[in-house]
Write a structure and sequence with these properties.
- This protein has 2 domains: 81 residues; 70 residues, no CATH class.
- It is mainly α.
- Helix 4 runs parallel beside helix 6, helix 8 runs parallel beside helix 10 and helix 10 packs parallel to helix 12.
- The protein contains 13 helices and no strands.
Length: 176
């Protein structure tokens, strides 16, 4: 090992494995240092591992909005409690995988209903439907959506046996 390599902190090195990245920062608990690592580490695995140890909601929100790697953004979103911020992510983020994670954290049923009807990606609509409790809305989605995955997600949550029987009889799709 070169002398110059010995002075480089472990978190600044490049890792190809998430477990190695976690090992590099396992003993770091200082939130300021973890924030520095989450914002500046060259490796996405190291940044993700640091994010998983951060508690500050504002820091997590900043990382969720600004990190270029979806895995780091999703790790931050998993720890965010601010419902308004999560709704903003669902409305604005370009990545459907990031939006799905945010949908999974949202409790606002009206917002979830809006997303279930309007999001451009079926997978995000499906994730929203899976969190909805309003039986009338689920029935509406099950009857009117043009996407079979969203429809199946709605049907799985419907409690009315009569409606389920009616839908099964009239279904043109074997998935339902």
């Amino acid at each position: 090992m070169k002398p110059s390599e010995m002075s480089v902190p472990a978190w600044k090195k490049d890792y190809w494995d998430y477990d190695e990245a976690c090992e590099a920062i396992k003993d770091i608990t200082d939130q300021i240092k973890l924030t520095e690592i989450a914002e500046k580490a060259p490796n996405e695995f190291v940044r993700q591992a640091a994010v998983e140890k951060i508690n500050n909601q504002e820091t997590l929100e900043k990382i969720a909005k600004t990190d270029k790697e979806k895995s780091v953004q999703k790790a931050a979103i998993e720890k965010i409690n601010n419902q308004e911020f999560l709704e903003e992510i669902v409305k604005a983020d370009g990545s459907w995988t990031v939006r799905i994670v945010a949908v999974g954290k949202i409790n606002n049923q009206k917002f979830l209903e809006e997303i279930a009807k309007t999001d451009r990606e079926w997978s995000v609509r499906e994730a929203a439907v899976e969190k909805i409790n309003n039986q009338e809305f689920l029935e509406e989605i099950a009857k009117t959506t043009g996407d079979e995955y969203v429809q199946v997600a709605a049907v799985k949550k419907i409690n009315s046996q009569n409606l389920l029987e009616e839908m099964a009889e009239n279904a043109g799709d074997s998935y339902v």
